[in-house]
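Q: I have 377 residues here and want to know how they pack in 3D. Can you give me a structure?
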Amino acid sequence: MSVTVSAVGMGRFGKRPEGLVDLAVEAAGAALAGVGRKPIDLLVGGTMLAHGPFGPEAYLPRLAERLGLETASGLRVDAASSTGAMAFHAAVLALESGRFERALIVAAEKMTDRTTDLITGELAASLHPSEVAAGATMPSLAAIIGQRYLERFELGPETIDLVTVHDRAMAVGNPNAHFQRSVTPAEVAGSRPVALPLRLLHCSAISDGATAVVLERGTGPATVLGIGQGFDALRMIDRMDLTTFTATRVAAQRAYEAAHLTRKEIDLVEFHDAFAPFGLIHLEDLGFCGPGEAPEWFAKGWVRPDGRLPVNPSGGVIGRGHPVAASGLAEIAEIALQLRGEAGAHAVARSPRIGMAQAVGGIASHNFVTILGAEAT
C-alpha cells in the first residue's frame, strides 16, 4: 500500500514569542489548509522537551483540541532529535496497516525561553547515564567525533568550516530558516570556541519552531518509497569507529532495499548536521562517497543546488535552526516540497524525482532514513 505526503506546513524557525502548542497549531493549520481540511483520522505528535508555562505540557490532547481533531486516534512520539522522523515513520506504518486513511504529523519544540545551560542539560538526557554523570554534553561528544575524523584523514580544522558555510548560504533562500545571512570561512574560523575543533558557528542554534505534514494513502509527487531505522551503542566508548555512524548505514541500507533503489538514483538529500563534522560523515554513510571524500564534495561545490547532489537546500540543521523534535520532520518536509515543486526560492536547479532525508537521534544512537519519490516503485 502506497502513502504520500500531500501537504506541508511550517512556520519560521528561530526565537519565537509563541508557546509550544501555538507553534504546533500554526504549522498544522498550514498543512491542513493544503489538503482542504480533509478528515484526519490519525494525529501523531512529536516533541522532546514538551514544556509549557506551568510545567510539562499535555501536548497531544491540547493539540487535538485546538485543531478540532478530538475524534481522531492519536499518539505522541519522543526520540530526541530524531523525534520528527520517528513520528513520520510511525504514521507511515499506521497507514500501511490499512487502519487509517489520512494522518497529520506535527513535531514542535519551544526552547528559547530557557537558558542555554538548562537546555544543554535537557538535551544530554539522550546520552548514556555514565556520560552525563561524567559531565559530557552534546557539543563535547560531537567535538570528539569531529577531532577523530580530522585525525583519521589528516585534515585541518578549516575542513569542517565548509559545512557551515554551505548550510548558511542555503538558508538565505529559505524564508522559514532561523538564519538569513551567509557567513565566510573566516567568520566561522573566528567564532567563539565551544569544544575544539568545534566553534560556535559549527554548532546548531537553540530554536523554536514546528513542522507538520499530511500523509495519506495513494501516490503523488512525494510518495514514500522506503524507510529505514538503525541503532548504535548509546555509549560512545562502546563503538568501534567514531568516524562513521553505524545507525545511519543500517537505516540507509534498509531504506534503499525497501525502495529498490541505489544511491545513484537519489537526486537530493537533506541530512541532520547538528554539528558541522556530522555533515561530512553523513554524506559518506549514506553512500554518496567513500570515507574521507566528503570534504572534496563541499570544497568543489558538488553539494550546491546546481551540483552533482544538492545537499540541505533548506539550510540544514545549522542554517535552518534546530527546534530538536521538529528537525527530523523538517528534513522530510523539505524533500516533499522539492518533489512537489513548492520549494520556492530554495528549489534545486534540476527538478528532482527522488529525494532522501536522514535524521539523527542523540549522538547518532538511533537514526532514520526516508526516501520519497515521484511514484511508487
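Q: Anything worth noting?
A: Residues 151 and 243 are 10 Å apart (CA to CA). The chain has 13 helices and 13 strands.
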